[in-house]
Each structure stands twice: as C-alpha cells, then as structure tokens.
Specification:
Order of helices and strands: HHHHHHHHH
Helix content: 55-70%
Largest sheet: none
Radius of gyration: 20 Å
Number of strands: 0
Structural class: mainly alpha
Number of helices: 9
Shape: elongated
Oligomer: single chain
Strand content: under 5%
C-alpha cells in the first residue's frame, strides 16, 4: 500500500482557500470590495451581535483558524470583521439565519460536551464544530461562519503579510519604457 501523505488542518484550509479563489458569496465579496477589513484588536463593540453571540463568534472562528506556528483568526481580528460583515452587508434573512445558528451553538454544545461553547476546551469545541457539519439545519450557518472566517483572515493585514506572500507593489519598476515595448497596450487596472 502506498504511503499516505498527512496534511494538517492549517495546510488543508490554505489549499482549499487557494482552490476556491474568489468563489465567495455576493455579500462577502461586496463587503470586502467596499473596504470592510478585519480589525486588529479584539477589544471591540459588536454592531449586531449580543455580547454572548460575539463571544461565540470569537471562539468558533479561533477554532476554525487557530493560532499556532502561524497567526490565527484571533490574531487577525476576524470576529469584529464577521460582526461588521453580517451587520452591514448581509440581507436581513441572512442576518437572522446567522444569529439563529449562533443561538443554537450553546444548546448543541451543552448536549454534546455538557458546557457552553465559549467555556469548552479546544478539543470539546472541535467536537461541537464537527457535529455542526452533520446537522443539515445548521449547515448554512456553519458554511457562512467558515466563509467569513477565512475571508476575514486572508483580507486582514496579518493574513496577507504574515501568512501569504505579499508584494505591496507587484512587478518591477519600468521607468522609461515605451508603450510598444510593453505590448502596445496600457493596463486597465
């Protein structure tokens, strides 16, 4: 039997993100294009979430992209990003779907590990998140949560500069080149 190559969760998320490219939902893409970026601080005032919901978003996003050898969701300020995205760019029905999913997270966590999600250990939180993938009624919420976590991380300064390759000004400087030597056309962007 051929040896299997083991891949950790961070590399799996990275590779999946690269494969997805910009295949993100309309509201998420609109928010990023309108300048919504992840904040660096975790000391934040929620726009739409209750204090408990904000703690749940913080805990769940930190388990989706945990800190370790590389920065994680909490290092990039993903929870305030998610709050802003849901508040400012999601339709009311999607806001309600997301908040309903958050409100079901503690009862599910209590059912599985006998404690609230934010107070559970990391391994217990992982158990609860795995259970979310099995529940068809909670899958839309969990997909939104994962999408916003990955989007918030990779569009933050931390994600873009410390995790991805970053070149503030891509390409070399071609100061005195004729338009013809550059292909005869100027760039649209």
């Amino acid at each position: 039997m051929a040896s299997q190559k083991i891949i950790d969760r961070r590399n799996a998320v990275k590779k999946a993100s690269l494969m997805l490219g910009f295949a993100v939902s309309g509201p998420a893409l609109t928010g990023v294009l309108n300048g919504c970026t992840a904040r660096k601080t975790i000391d934040w005032q929620p726009l739409i979430f209750s204090e408990n919901e904000a703690m749940l978003v913080e805990a769940a996003s930190s388990r989706i992209l945990p800190s370790g050898e590389t920065p994680g969701a909490s290092d990039a300020g993903v929870a305030p990003f998610i709050d802003e995205m849901v508040a400012e760019y999601y339709l009311p029905r999607d806001q309600q779907r997301f908040q309903t999913g958050l409100q079901q997270l503690d009862p599910l966590s209590n059912e599985i590990v006998s404690r609230n999600f934010a107070n559970a250990s990391e391994s217990e939180q992982d158990q609860v998140l795995k259970e979310l993938t099995k529940r068809s009624d909670l899958q839309p919420f969990f997909l939104m949560l994962k999408e916003l976590t990955v989007l918030g991380f990779f569009t933050s300064e931390v994600g873009a500069t410390q995790f991805l390759n970053f070149d503030e000004i891509p390409g070399g400087f071609l100061g005195c080149e004729s338009l013809e030597s550059l292909g005869g056309k100027t760039w649209a962007t």
